[in-house]
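Notes from hallway chat w/ T.B., transcribed later so I don't forget. T.B. wanted the structure written out for a chain they're using in a teaching module, and asked if we could keep both sequence and structure tokens in one place. Agreed to drop them here.
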Amino acid sequence: MDPLENERILAVAVVRRWLEEARLPAIRAALSALPEANAADLLCEQGIIDSNQRIALQGKETTRREETRRQPFVDQCLTEAAAQGASDLHLVPFHSPLCRCLGLLRGLGASWGILSPQQTEELVEQILPSRDRETLKRQGWASLPYGREQPRARLTVGRDATSYFLSFRLPFPDPIELRALGMEDAGELAAIPSGLVVVAGGVGQGKTTLFSALARRIHRTRTGRLVLLEQLPEHPWKEEGRPIVRIAFSDLRADRNKVLRAAFALDPDILLLDASVGRGTLRLLVEETARTGVLVMATLGLRSVTEALRELCAAMPHGGSRSLLVRTLRAILSLELVPLATGKGRVAACELFRNVPAAGVALLKADPSRLENVLDAAGGSHFQPIDDSLWRLFQQGLIRMEGAYTRCRNRSRWAERMHAPNPSRVW
């Protein structure tokens, strides 16, 4: 039996509270002595789970008891979008199907008709299982995997005051490398020995893509047990070598804190987390990172280093918890995609914060609403603002002035730089 599959089975059993964490060492020892054994069969033979639970762990029943009918229209749209090399497909009222190619949103083609609010509502009713409809009703949006092929598309369904919209994130056909993203410098994050590293960015800004490339770099260059927690496996993993325990939140439908605790119970040397988390889970992540002393890399759906720091400070307020954050946090990398000057594609502008000792001292007492002292500590050499990255991209001719100026954070200093006698040497 594949040891990686057995680890997945044990993690799911712990998350669903069918197996106590205290019994994991004994179960692992038994599986090591019986290399052909299946973990689900062993748990059933020991009387820990029943036969129905064994079937569920072995994956012999559908992960959705409520199998929904697939609308051929959606599948046709996805097929056409993939053929055009699109990264996203959007089905919204009063528009024909839209796709994003090379960073630009455009129509799928002249032959596709305009969708009505009633049509998008019918698509939602046909695609969305009842439990996801409850989520949609409660929070205004729901995210789930779509399709049978692996890796599957990620579907996000949302609702505004009058209608529904559907957005599909198409799976990547090939693994992504840092060099191909033009972000080889980010590889330094993969070499950090321990502590918490955050990759931040807004929706659709490439943080999951960068995270996947960093995960591949870590997988190739680091030793030890690697556990990858994802909302949905978007990126293929076509690499020989050391196995990785890969767990998708979308398959478990369990409380995130329980899943996170189960992942740490697997005794990883490196934990990679690519899923949206609330402040409670963020606090747990910091605490478990400090307790275990492993490298944890996580994504946050926030637009900047400042926003990420503010959220971390809010999750870990003053006192012992803030001290824990200071000792645990290593770096924050934030990125934003900017259209290329050619109009074909986008390039990432980044800002990087390193938690050096001087910054840690400022962070210990910082008010979440005023973080300037943290960013300016020790002369600010530990913080590389996004404006510097935008300026370099502009100087290299990769992006246009308007694209850089609209995204810079300090426009008065940007204007000073533009009007300096030798702009390339200012700042």
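Follow-up for T.B.: The CA atoms of residues 20 and 62 lie 25 Å apart. Might be a good example for the class.
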